Amino acid sequence: MLKKGVLLYQGAAGKGGEDLATIVPLLSQRVEELIIKKSSKPGDLNNYIEQLDSTVETLWILGGDGTVHECVQALRDKEQIPPIGILPGGTCNDIARSLNIPMQMDLAVESSLNGEIRYFDLGLLRDRSFQNFAGIGLIAETSTNINPDGKELFGPLSYFASAWRTMKEAKQFTYSLTVDGEKISGEAFMVIVCNGRFVGTRELPFNELKMDDGILDVMVVKATGMQLFMEWYQRSRELEVESDGVEHYRGKEIVIETDDEMDVDMDGELIGKTPLHISLKERHIPFITNSSE
C-alpha cells in the first residue's frame, strides 16, 4: 500500500473523463492518499510538479507523449524525482510503448502498481529535453499537418493519415550531421534522433535500441529509401537499415545543421528550429515499466 501518490492529467486532451473512471477506483485501492490534479491551461503541469515533495511515492501521468514530455521537462532538474507511471491516454503513446506499458487502461494501471522502477536516459536540446525523439523533415511536417479535431476523434488513425499525406508531398532538404565528431552530409527527407523505440506507434528496426543504454540512435531517410519507409510505415514490409537509402548512426553528441531553418519535433510537439545540438543525460528519469515484458 502506497501512502501518497499524485495523478496529473490534461483536461483538454484525450478522453480524460472516461479514463479517470477506470483509473481512480483502481489506484484508490492501493494508495492511501491519492491527489488528482487537472491541467486546464499552459503552465499548470509545471506548477503542480514544482509543488511535489519527497512524500510523493509515485507520480502518475495520464496523457499522451506531449503530456509526458511536458512533465519530464518540469521534472528533469528536481533533486528528487518520484517514480513515474504513464497511463497512456494520447494519440500514439510512443513513450508508453517504449516502456512496454499496456495500451488498455486497466492493464496500464495494474502495470504501474506492480511494475519495475528503472532509470532511463534523457535527450537534451538547448534548454529542452526529450524522452523519445527529436527530428526534422517528414516527422515535423506530419505533426504540422495533423488535424486537431481528427486527432481527438480518430486517435492514431489521424496520425497515420497525416503521415501518409506528408510522405506523398515531402521534399528533400540538405543537412549536415555530426555524430561524436564524425561528419556526414547530404540530402534527406527526414533525420530523427531516437531514445525510445516507437515513432507513430511503429517500432523502429534497431535491435540494439534501448532507452537506458547511454547512447542515441540516428535514422536518416534519403530519396532512395522513401518508398521503403512508406511501405514499412504501412506495415507492408520490414525496414532494412543501412540499405535502400535508410542510414543508421549511434552516438552521444549529435549536431544537425540545415541550409534553411527547419521546424523541430520533440516527442510529437513542435519546439524550436534548426540547428540542433543534442546530448544525453544517462539514466536520469525513473519510469515504472511493465515487469511482465
From TrEMBL:
Respond yes or no to whether keyword ATP-binding is given for this record.
yes
Q: Which GO terms describe its molecular function?
A: ATP binding; ATP-dependent diacylglycerol kinase activity
Q: Name one Pfam family in it.
A: DAGK_cat
Key word Transport present: no
Q: What does the entry list under GO cellular component?
A: plasma membrane
Keyword annotations from UniProtKB, A to Z: ATP-binding, Kinase, Lipid biosynthesis, Lipid metabolism, Nucleotide-binding, Phospholipid biosynthesis, Phospholipid metabolism, Transferase
Q: Which family does it belong to?
A: Belongs to the diacylglycerol/lipid kinase family.
What protein am I looking at? YegS/Rv2252/BmrU family lipid kinase
